[in-house]
Write the structure tokens for this entry.
Amino acid sequence: MLYNLIIQGKHVPTQSLKQIAKLAKVSAIEAINQQAFCLSQADDTLSAAIATLCAEQQLDYAFIPFHRYVKDFKLVVMDMDSTLITIECIDEIADMIGVKPEVASITEAAMRGEIGFAESLTRRVALLTGLDASALQRVYDERLQLTPGAEQLIATCQKNGIKTLLVSGGFTFFTDKLKARLNLDYAAANSLEIIDGKLTGRVLGDILDAQAKADWLNKIRAEIDCTQKQTMAIGDGANDLLMMAAAGASVAYHAKPIVREQASCALSYNDLSAVIPLLGKE
């Protein structure tokens, strides 16, 4: 199979690019932008050596099908916390009540796949019992920031008619606001129970876990008459793995090792705009 090898980095040394091109036996090197290069008709036989060289130079690499075009995709699905945005919302909510270390340690264990997501969320939300609901707005206003490159990626999707789905094990308070702010097509997350203006420490309804993320991808895919091959999923934690496996292409974004190992490709050094060259030629 013919591939294009995409090399991306904050600084891509010419000598390193030539070394990679030699290892991949490419026919041509094309600059996509100042930080991204497409090496045409690459051979992936020596991919381990290419991976080592790229890691030494802090470069991201990805072998993508030679005949892939951006317009081949119809749906891009992305995680929210530490993917579309820079924070873990529940950790920052917990900081408002002085239990961030306890909540963050459970979050990390869940993202590494050491405990089930539903169990981890139940335990974390319980620690928020009694917190004034106004803390959610404070987190959104004071702490939530979009991941660099997020708006460029979404704009590229919209320009090419690709639908966007934000699906999160976090909370609808944040996904709904981001959906409106970024003009996303779909969003799904968990709902916190609030009574008399305070968090009860419970989630309403079924927990949106790893399986539910995959189910949402497949649900929207069916709605818009989109094949698996026409979908891309982006995530960083273990609860994204089923969603990513359900997609035709997957990107591990600054992800845990278990996710990098199972994704189609990984971005460890670049911002979210680096997903754009992985969609293919425009």
